[in-house]
């Protein structure tokens, strides 16, 4: 009897994972509920003062959102050109033995934990900035971006490589038959064809970079001043949550404010992922 | 024409150097860790508790290794059954495209969940609402939630990679789907699934943000009590660095952690490669 029902049981379990995801969202909304009545959502997101212990308390995460955007977008700015070059190299140009070395390298790079990236960034990069640019302390959003770049590179590369490989071989054959050089073929024919997949890779890594905690916590400097440039210090959202959750009193507006910040981050990343899912579905229907 | 050829050469150089840069990054990360960390590592470092003032300046990291082991095992124990069931559903049973797409999207979203949000959720649910306190149990469950999508995706792909002929022959012989799954498909995919689990273990062992808020302590005498906080390697590394306890010990801890994860990852890669053939 049990054996026939296996499919149903598996479906139920799989359904529970969806419920879990929804419950995460609901829980965050529930825990942060009082904040939204105390502070209007717009003021919460755009406000630049975070002082949950002051009287009257100020809850605005604008500075943190700006820091998050600086670090994540900065990381993309560096990682996208580099990652695309690597993906093109792996998909089109690398000889077999080279590809056989690089693919495991990508896997190992994802296997190194973020705290180690953060630690190395803080001891090597930050020191480097302090010594060479005579800065009092070398932490900056730029440092965080640099380390995030290395962290998101493997994701960009493997996703864009599979997008490039999914292009039917006819395009390559026709272009080569027309006497076009291989770099030209890659840049003018293959890249535009893989546009959707490449955009998907960028969205994926943007979500990753925005949600990364340890590296930004150790590198961004953790000051609550509105960041004015890529080289100023800041405190991205995940760092704020990680730093203050332990000290906030359960049930206080401070605690609920952190959940509200988590909710903003969650909605942002979920939005990115749903966008990605939409992209993938479109691509599939476009092929069939 | 000359310009064209020059441009082509430049692009080729760009592609090659991007690939080589990647290699260089990995080698320099590992090389630097070994260079700075190897002198600290000896038997005492691996087998003693942290000592000295501030705590961790001398002594070893045994409780942290034990704690990480407990956390990882607990995480995998919590995640493995639901994850395998979900993977089996996605690979073998899903007939309605709609439901499969919803579940696939869910798994993808869970994989994209920022680890600090997972931590926040588990802090509120396990530590505060259910009253577990900062404990091994809460941390293990948080990590379990984090590795769930990893196991689902790898197990699903391993099952899908099994040659379809087995399914057809099995079904044409009138074997039930359940029997087919248990006797043919799962053994065929076993190496890939095991590889995925090892990958998940590595992922859990390196995660810091979730356990920072749900399980980790700077120092605990014992490891293994479900209701007590634990020490963990990544968190120990973070503390050693951020409280400026000892940079040397931090390098040693990082080296131990990274070597552990590299070994796990290499075995996982080997297993999954074998499965792919």
UniProtKB/TrEMBL annotation, chain A:
Membrane topology: Multi-pass membrane protein
Gene3D superfamilies, alphabetized: MetI-like
GO biological process: phosphate ion transport
Residues annotated as domain ABC transmembrane type-1: 65-276
Transmembrane segment boundaries: 61-93, 105-129, 135-157, 198-220, 258-279
Cross-referenced CDD domains: TM_PBP2
InterPro entries: MetI-like (IPR000515), MetI-like_sf (IPR035906), Phosphate_PstC (IPR011864), Phosphate_Transport_Permease (IPR051124)
Key word Mitochondrion present: no
Compartment(s) of residence: Cell membrane
A GO cellular component annotation in the UniProt record: plasma membrane
Entry GO MF terms: phosphate transmembrane transporter activity
UniProt KW RNA-binding keyword: no
Keyword tags: Cell membrane, Membrane, Phosphate transport, Transmembrane, Transmembrane helix, Transport
Family: Belongs to the binding-protein-dependent transport system permease family. CysTW subfamily.
Function statement: Part of the binding-protein-dependent transport system for phosphate; probably responsible for the translocation of the substrate across the membrane.
PANTHER family: PHOSPHATE TRANSPORT SYSTEM PERMEASE PROTEIN PST, PHOSPHATE TRANSPORT SYSTEM PERMEASE PROTEIN PSTC
UniProt protein name: Phosphate transport system permease protein
Organism of this sequence: Desulforamulus aeronauticus DSM 10349
Automatic annotation (TrEMBL), chain B:
One family name in Pfam for this protein: BPD_transp_1
Family designation: Belongs to the binding-protein-dependent transport system permease family. CysTW subfamily.
UniProt organism field: Desulforamulus aeronauticus DSM 10349
Gene Ontology molecular function: phosphate transmembrane transporter activity
Name of the protein in its database record: Phosphate transport system permease protein PstA
Domain ABC transmembrane type-1: 65-268
Transmembrane segments: 12-35, 64-90, 102-126, 132-159, 180-204, 250-271
Keyword Heme attached: no
Membrane topology: Multi-pass membrane protein
GO cellular component: plasma membrane
Ligase keyword on record: no
Domain of life from the UniProt record: Bacteria
Main location: membrane
GO BP: phosphate ion transmembrane transport
InterPro entries listed in its UniProt record: MetI-like, MetI-like_sf, Phosphate_PstA
Keywords assigned by UniProt, alphabetized: Cell membrane, Membrane, Transmembrane, Transmembrane helix, Transport
Compartment annotation: Cell membrane
